[in-house]
Amino acid sequence: MRYLFTFFLLLFSFVLKSQVGSINISVFDEFSKKPLEAIVKIQKRSDSISGIGRIQLDNIPSGSYTFEISSENYNTSYLYDINIIPNQNLSYSVGLNKSEIKSIQEVLITKKTYKTTAESPVSLRNITSEEIQKNAGSNRDISRAILSFPGVGSTATFRNDLFIRGGSSAENKFYIDGIEVPIINHFQTQGASGGPRGIITVDFIKDVDFYSGAFPAKRNGALSSLFEFNLKEARKDKLGYKAIVGLDDLQLMMDGPLSKDQSWSGLFSVRKSNLQLLFKAIGLPFLPSYYDATFKVSKKYKSGDELYFIGLGAIDKFEFNTDAKKTLSNLTLIDRLPVAPQWNYTFGAGYRHLVDNGNWLFTISRNMLDNQATKYYRNIETPENLLFDYNSQEGENKIRIDRNFMLGDFVFSAGTNFNYAKYTNNSTIKSVNQSGLSFDQINSDLKVFQYGFYVQSAHKFFDNKVQLSLGTRFDASTYSQQTDNPFDQFSPRFSLNYKFADRWAFNFNTGIYHALPAYTALGLKLNDVLVNRKTLKYIQNIHYVAGLEYNGKDNLRLTMEGYYKKYKNYPFSLRNQISLANIGADFGVVGSEPLDSRGFGETYGIEFLAQKRTLNNFYGILAYTFGYSKFSDGVGNLLPSSWDSRHILSVSAGKVLPRNWNFSARFRLQSGLPETPYDLIRSASVPIWNINNGPLQDFAKLNSLRGNVAHQLDLRTEKKWVFKKWQFTAYLDIINVYGSKTASNLPVVNLQRDNNDNGVIQNPNASPADQNYLLEVGSQDNNMPIPYFGFIFEF
């Protein structure tokens, strides 16, 4: 042990402060994608370098830097908090937008710290890979980092179920470099978007554009949020390697050139879960494990054209921790959770072709989800105890064509998309609902074709003080006569940006958005009949958003936005008489039941954001949201939805300290979410409990209770050691430091058990149909602190 300690002491003592790295920055016109002549300057240093298209900066001492990129007649842009690693040549790309020309003699060049677009002057936030990795509580997961922004709520500390501005977690869409990726979380809730752990490799992300409204017309199906992931470029000098050995997973990465002329390059990652070891150590009753892989291979042509291939996939497994402490909460989770193996993948290719007036982008992709789940009563695997055996697959083949061009001073984008999908479901399911017991034998084989097309334009008026954007899209599907007319899904949108002072702007957007219900709902087939074909329509959502924006000195941004969203044609459960807008924040499946489209709702609120990107080694975000979310019940009354959190507060801050230390913290507070009480009398029935495996919610009292105020403090610290040809980082991320009370205020309910662990029947002499169990009612366990620590090796 003494010799091992001496070895590490000597190893870390050989830190050479003079170790240097380099960075390669591609600079292009954001609209046309053509290379630009530009100047790159490192902030707080006097030296700068110019070049055309690709600019190389060499011999930069290792450390964190912000790079300023400028070009004549273009708005200045920045790369923030780039970590220069010894003996590595990093690659980044930056698109610049043309500046506002007041006259032939006068050009106003502005420095744009925060991203907005003509289509989305409101509700657009941008977060870089470096900001994600430094964010306390995110543990390098984008879905958790987004919780620092306004309008974003969550349901549990260990899951990525995001509800945005009062909409359900099923209303979010995700794209990577223009290719749609339906699944970004392990253990995906089919028919929604949540899960306990993200799949996307954060080290490969350049930045993420997060839209909570004002969605561009080229993207279909988004109702509450849109995530545009932009991947970084691979390094140009040689193959580089990175390894992360963490308490939660083990990950290996490689990037670099794949050909002698460096025109081919690639990013590659594989990851193996250690999460089951962590969950077992802290005593959780379920042990998830996973594998995932990500890659991007690209070819850059001398003409500026680019061909690229993207792939990511995951395999998820699940088992119970029978050694967990037998608390009432743990026993209840083991009784209710299914064994649910799952796998998924997305493969895609894109080709960007530059022309004299703009560019073309062609993409083609395929994605697949295989979802299985089995559950036996009390986990005793005998035929008579089988509650459900679920086997489902959904696959999609997609083609997109996008074109950017100009007509005079008007900027246009137009395009089309096609999607051929196949959904199968061969399952046996026993369930209990508000109207009684159900025994479904599902045998689904749905094939459906979807298509859409769009056009959008933008122009500036009144000496460039006013910018307007107008667009629309049409969508249709061959699913039924209610979905096959694209004019029924006419989706216009309008945006306004008015700069009434040097640092102030008024922004406005309104739009109509449509989304086809989930395949689980569309494809439900019982007795050889597609049950929902005649009743389901496209979900419609109308947005109104307005706000003020202030861009101050020292990277300070203040925004205030008010929003109103009105829903129509929301899928509605005929068995439980509730809108599916209330479902989606748990393991399992959403939508595989008889439905119609009677649901409607509205959400509205106001958001405040104060954000300061890194300056003088300090960064921070303060976000507050006050809002309402209401959806209809069975008789058409608007009730608080499951996402109706009145107040959401998030405060995040960090400091870069000397000797390569970084410390960050985040505090989040969210007022209690509505909850539906249990019907304990009905739940106690032996026939009902033996199928439901737990208490029943009384949907006649939908969301009539409130959960606890949820709050938690997350901390993160990391330290870097820089060596001659590599870099070593140690990090510690503690989620929910003080172990706050669980957000749910519902009791934990299970059976009173005899010495043989069987449920105690209070009236054993009654007929089997009339027998009732004795129930044990207790309180929820507190959430516990979850520590994540690990080591990062970069070569």
From TrEMBL:
One annotated Gene Ontology cellular component of this protein: cell outer membrane
Compartments it resides in: Cell outer membrane
Superkingdom of the source species: Bacteria
Main location: membrane
Residues in coiled coil: none
Listed Pfam families: Plug (PF07715), TonB_dep_Rec_b-barrel (PF00593)
UniProt keyword list: Cell outer membrane, Membrane, Receptor, TonB box, Transmembrane, Transmembrane beta strand, Transport
Topology in membrane: Multi-pass membrane protein
GO MF terms held by the record: siderophore uptake transmembrane transporter activity
Keyword Transport: yes
GO BP annotations listed: siderophore transmembrane transport
Every TonB-dependent receptor plug domain range: 118-217
UniProt key word Ribosomal protein: no
TonB-dependent receptor-like beta-barrel domain: residues covered: 341-672
Family of this protein: Belongs to the TonB-dependent receptor family.
Protein name: Ferric aerobactin receptor
Species this protein is from: Kaistella jeonii
